[in-house]
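Q: How would the structure tokens look for this protein?
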Amino acid sequence: MFVRLGYSDLKIVFRDVGTILQYSSAMFLVPCIFSLLYTESFTGVVLYYVLSSAIVFLFGFILKSFFQNEFSTQMKHAFLITAVSWIAFTCFAALPFVFIQGASFVDGLFEAMSALTTTGLSVMRPLLDSMPRSLIFWRSLLSWVGGIGIIVLAMVGVFAAYTRASKLIIAEGREERLTPNLKNSVMAVWWVYALLTGIGALLLFLSGMTPFESMNYSMSAISTTGMDISSPGLAVESGYWAINLGIHNYWVDISLIIIMLFGATSFSVHYLFFKRKDIRAFFKDAEFRGLLLLSVLTSLMVIPKLGIENGIFHAVSALTCGGFELVVTQAIGQWDEFVKLVLVLAMFIGGSAGSTAGGIKISRFIIFVKGIYWKAKETLLPQKAFFAKKFDGREVKGEEIREVVFFILLYAFFIALGIMVLTFDGATISNSLFEVVSAQSNAGISTGITNAGMPLASKTMLIFNMWIGRLEIIPAFSLLGLAIYFVRRKRKQ
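A: Here is the predicted structure in token form.
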């Protein structure tokens, strides 16, 4: 499980992390556009983005220079580079919240981790109404980049190394990238992602949102993050009708449902659709069919308790890990236990592999369920009997089934760990289960446990759950392997 590393491997890892940080430093300058557009304080806002950018670039430059080498990067390095760079950049992404909003570093780290992992839980929700518009955009930008980042990592093969369910490297049942060239594949994904974001923003604008609202909500929805831009959330941000007439804007709800489903669908399917102009590309995909079926089943189960509007919206929000809420978070904590259980299962499953959604992924869920059926069938048939084990038109080997089961067990273990911490800090078991699954599945629907005043242990645990859920566990184990390496090396000295 742990990656064997030598000093030369560590030089490669830190060199590449430094390079990533150098390139990433440019992100901190993007919110400056909105700072200037909304005439925010130059010394109190704009300069802090510039300062943050400079700090990140300098740190990356030092890492890259100190660990400069000519060795090539291999897959074993990719695991560790992913884990280390994600933590490092998240720490730096917290700086604008600390510098501009005056938040504690832990709260800034929580907000940045929640955005980058496309979770959507927030400890700064009450502060949103007084927060600079550029900082609100910063949250949306982090979530948007986090969403595309996870897709690119899946496409490169970081997550496919231990499960062959990645739709981005197994397009149409064959092991191949979207295009023969990796660089072109990355560009293709960016193009599709940006196009879907633009379509989402247009839908929300036509539904009554302002340009700023529609842009932020589209970025948050396509990345299946679910971050609001005001403390009341969608109750206010639903446009003219909701604000001035007291009428809920159903068109916003419908638009968000569509965008969340876009985000939870494998981007290889989106690519094939745009390339071939054939709607059948969606319905040929087993995960997309499973996404629609599970959305309908989940909705039907919660509609009797929540009503049609809340039932459908929150069912899709949970399954896609979109994380948007039509009610205040405290109300969710008081929901019927059956509703919370159904939504927990939906968040646990999540969306398609190769999408921005979290959870264990529909592909793993289907293979797991089929694996149970196949095992039962094997016990009933004669010992030498043979039958095909297939998923999405390809053969599933026993090794893949075992990997899926192992992954789900690890996933459940860390959820159980989170529940223990939250219940120790005084939360109820049902709400702790809901909150931890929401964090680790990167869904972001909250029962009200997540807030600025929650105990430090609970905050830290949820940060860990969000991180390990987004990285799908195995890269995180590589970081543990790095820690073991340093401990052993220190003992030998």
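The chain has a mean pLDDT of 86.

The domain at 364-492 is CATH 1.10.287 (Helix Hairpins).

Upvote if useful.
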